[in-house]
């Protein structure tokens, strides 16, 4: 019986387990389903950036930077680059504190150093550093950041390459806060530069170019007519609905056009029409009036004030009482300085000289115009433009040859500053005085010919026998910067040929050309490249240039220049509102392409030409 008694509990135990198991199965089937864990791919910093998750990318990189070695250092550098692009420069500095302490020279470290310079307003130093990098050094996000930084620095320096780099950066990831900034930078660069050939150089992945070019054409065509501009921009928006300019820029363009629609009816012109400055002031006045007559602007009332020095203040105040909407002048520096020191300027001023160090920033007058702008024919401007042209032509190592005068020193100083800011090297600095032997000595110094001859003399003495010798010029120079008037230049240039050093391009300031074609006298200047006032070039001459030659046949270069200066002063009457409101705007003047910077200065960019058979031939604009 015992086996039977024992077998029964085993059966019940087995059966009970089955029931329990069944009950468990039934209970699991009716309970809510638990989420099943899926295999999630690891999200790298690059994929997080591509997804627009910049803060998460920084967190991932910061975690990766917790170790030691090159990998951790590069992670800190990259995290700092993202922080900087997000506008968190203090956080970027914290990331870079250790990574840059060892003066690392990796592309990321160099880019970080450039961004620090830009954050401190040192654009020129940043540009110098950025020029040593290339897009191939970086991943997609960093490529975009590098191209945007390079383009921004180039734009500040007036480099035409800015538009290409800024537009090429559009195809790479960027934080949302940088899209608006990039849109405005591209617009500024596009308006400043010729867009010929841009399509061929642009990355084919950028689909925004047609919209940019169409927007530029519409804005230029209808700038003075807000109603038709609004219609054109509405049509543009339908054609390019996804274009980044739709976000804010199109509305800003229209708003600017509406602000500039007010008419200008009464202007006061302050000039020293008597005394030692009278001949210069007369040339400015005549150019101003000639341009007014040529424009057939009968609605504008001009009142002239004969004034110099501190008296300009009382004449300005009288012009305000008379209802002037704009005061142009004075011409003399003391008069300009007196107006520049005024704490209140109820009517805007366009001064015709540099205000100097006493300039007082005042609240802008009501309306579109700021309270103070100034326009001057400074030789320093020519030197800065020469640096730009020589750099864009591909030169990097240059020798300067200037007159041993105060003007020569000022011109050279301005050139050297602009040249070195771009990264160029001044290999030699030579001065000349007005004699043939002095010219020769200066050129010999420039090319180290004296050193070459000294070496030959040493060899003769050592060998105690005659040797055949030809002086060899230094080979570390790739261009010459020359500041000279026509008389000096016609004697200096032949010396280059005589000494066998005429193989290098020579860039001269605008003073090298007298303003009138003279093939016989200028034959010795063959090949010299120089900056010129556009209206002085035969290919660009306007009807007013012909009238000037007819009525002022014996005028010198200075008078001609001041006449053109007066023409541009009139031109600025209408253009100044646009130039002041939009720093990227420019206008083609008789003395150069004019634009206004943030300080109020009207800057000039010259036309460039080359002497060919003694006649200036305008250089084609870069593609």
Secondary-structure-based class equals alpha/beta
Largest sheet: 8 strands, mixed
Number of domains: 4
CATH architecture call of the largest domain: 3-Layer(aba) Sandwich
Q: What's the helix and strand layout?
A:
Elements: H1 2-30, H2 45-50, H3 54-64, H4 70-85, H5 89-99, H6 107-119, H7 123-130, H8 140-157, H9 162-168, H10 176-192, H11 198-201, H12 209-221, H13 226-239, H14 249-259, E1 266-271, H15 278-295, E2 301-306, H16 312-321, E3 326-328, H17 333-340, E4 349-351, E5 372-375, H18 379-392, E6 397-403, H19 406-421, E7 425-432, H20 436-446, H21 449-463, E8 479-483, H22 486-498, E9 506-508, E10 529-532, H23 543-551, H24 557-581, E11 587-588, E12 593-596, E13 601-605, E14 607-612, E15 615-618
Parallel strand pairs: 1-2, 1-3, 3-4, 4-5, 5-13, 6-7, 6-8, 8-9, 9-10
Antiparallel strand pairs: 10-14, 11-12, 12-13, 14-15
Helix pairs in contact: 3-4, 4-5, 4-6, 5-6, 6-7, 6-8, 7-8, 8-9, 8-10, 9-10, 12-13, 13-14, 15-24, 18-19, 20-22
């Amino acid at each position: 019986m015992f086996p039977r008694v024992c077998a029964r509990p085993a059966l019940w135990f087995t059966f009970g387990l089955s029931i329990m198991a069944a009950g468990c199965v039934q209970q699991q089937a009716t309970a809510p389903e638990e989420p099943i864990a899926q295999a999630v791919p690891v999200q790298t910093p690059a994929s997080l950036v591509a997804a627009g998750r910049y803060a998460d990318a920084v967190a991932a990189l910061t975690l990766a930077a917790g170790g030691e070695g090159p990998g951790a250092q590069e992670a800190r550098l990259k995290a700092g680059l993202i922080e900087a692009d997000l506008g968190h420069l203090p956080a970027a500095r914290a990331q870079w504190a250790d990574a840059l302490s060892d003066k690392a020279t990796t592309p990321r470290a160099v880019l970080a150093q450039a961004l620090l310079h830009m954050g401190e307003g040192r654009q020129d130093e940043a540009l110098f550093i950025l020029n040593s990098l290339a897009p191939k050094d970086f991943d997609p996000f960093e490529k975009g950041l590098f191209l945007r930084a390079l383009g921004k620095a180039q734009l500040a320096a007036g480099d035409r390459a800015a538009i290409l780099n800024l537009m090429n950066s559009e195809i790479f990831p960027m934080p949302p806060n940088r899209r608006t900034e990039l849109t405005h930078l591209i617009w500024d660069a596009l308006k400043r530069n010729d867009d010929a050939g841009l399509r061929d150089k642009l990355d084919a992945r950028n689909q925004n170019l047609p919209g940019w070019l169409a927007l530029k054409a519409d804005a230029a065509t209808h700038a003075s007519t807000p109603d038709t501009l609004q219609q054109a921009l509405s049509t543009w928006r339908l054609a390019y609905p996804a274009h980044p300019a739709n976000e804010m820029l199109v509305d800003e363009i229209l708003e600017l056009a509406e602000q500039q629609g007010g008419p200008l009816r009464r202007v006061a012109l302050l000039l020293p029409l008597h005394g030692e400055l009278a001949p210069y002031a007369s040339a400015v006045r005549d150019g101003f009036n000639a341009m007014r007559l040529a424009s057939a602007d009968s609605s504008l009332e001009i009142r002239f004030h004969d004034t110099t020095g501190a008296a300009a203040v009382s004449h300005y105040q009288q012009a305000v009482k008379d209802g002037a909407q704009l005061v142009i002048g004075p011409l003399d520096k003391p008069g300009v300085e007196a107006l520049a020191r005024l704490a209140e300027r109820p009517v805007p001023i366009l001064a015709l000289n540099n205000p100097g160090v006493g300039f007082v920033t005042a609240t802008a007058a009501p309306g579109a115009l700021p309270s103070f702008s100034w326009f001057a024919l400074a030789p320093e401007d020519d030197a800065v433009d020469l640096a730009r042209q020589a750099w864009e032509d591909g030169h990097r190592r240059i020798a300067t040859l200037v007159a041993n005068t105060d003007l020569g020193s000022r011109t050279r100083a301005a050139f050297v500053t602009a040249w070195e800011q771009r990264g160029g090297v001044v290999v030699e600095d030579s001065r000349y005085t007005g004699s043939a032997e002095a010219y020769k000595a200066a050129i010999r110094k420039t090319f180290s010919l004296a050193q070459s001859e000294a070496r030959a003399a040493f060899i003769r003495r050592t060998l105690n026998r005659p040797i055949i010798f030809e002086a060899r010029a230094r080979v570390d120079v790739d261009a010459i910067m020359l500041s000279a008037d026509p008389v000096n230049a016609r004697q200096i240039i032949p010396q280059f040929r005589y000494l066998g050093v005429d193989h290098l391009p020579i860039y001269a300031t605008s003073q090298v050309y007298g303003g009138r074609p003279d093939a016989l006298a200028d034959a010795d200047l063959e090949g010299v490249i120089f900056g010129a006032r556009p209206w002085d070039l035969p290919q660009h001459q306007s009807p007013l240039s012909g009238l000037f030659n007819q009525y002022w046949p014996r005028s010198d270069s200075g008078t001609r220049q001041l006449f053109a200066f007066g023409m541009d002063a009139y031109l600025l009457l209408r253009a100044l509102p646009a130039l002041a409101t939009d720093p990227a705007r420019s206008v083609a003047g008789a003395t150069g392409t004019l634009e206004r910077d943030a300080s109020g200065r009207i800057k000039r960019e010259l036309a460039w030409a080359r002497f060919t058979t003694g006649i200036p031939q305008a250089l084609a604009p870069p593609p």
